[in-house]
Amino acid sequence: MSKAVNNILIPNVTKTSGHKQVDKSNQLPKEGQVSEFKDLLQSKLEKKPLHNGINLSTHAQKRLQERQIDFNGEEYMKVKDAMAKLKAKGGQNSLIVSEKAAYIVDVKNNKVVTAVDKASMGENVFTKIDSTVFIN
Questions:
Q1: CA 41 and chain centroid, separation
Q2: Which of 60, 38, 73, 71 is nearest to 109 (CA)?
Q3: What residues does each domain of the chain span?
Q4: Distance (Å) of CA 1 to CA 4, 13, 84
Q5: What's the pLDDT score for residue 1?
Q6: Could you give the C-alpha distances from 128 to 6, 60, 61, 65, 125, in angstroms and in order?
Q7: Which tens digit of pLDDT belongs to each residue from 87-135?
């Protein structure tokens, strides 16, 4: 027999049998055991860098697309080398200027924060920069 509550028909619930069987095949691993989910979550939390060492912020990705800056191959390697030099010299928030563009980088996190194409470089003011590298 069912009972109507707030115009919703709710069936009677009967008790289940006293003997319960638990399926342990989906049980979470115990402390110290390997967990595929845990490994995946940890890799996402660590934010493994893109491009084998350099992260691109969402803003930088947009700017590279909008300004049609080619950040592959040679340009990427130049920026990567420049970031290694900046890190060795203690740079933190730096400006890397190449023949194609200028990049604001967060050296500590290996991240390109934004990019400005060569045509727009003269119109910009770069603030909060502690070091600059010119690359050819």
A1: 13
A2: 60
A3: 55-134
A4: 10, 10, 75
A5: 54
A6: 62, 17, 21, 24, 10
A7: 999 999 999 999 999 999 999 999 999 999 988 888 788 899 999 999 9
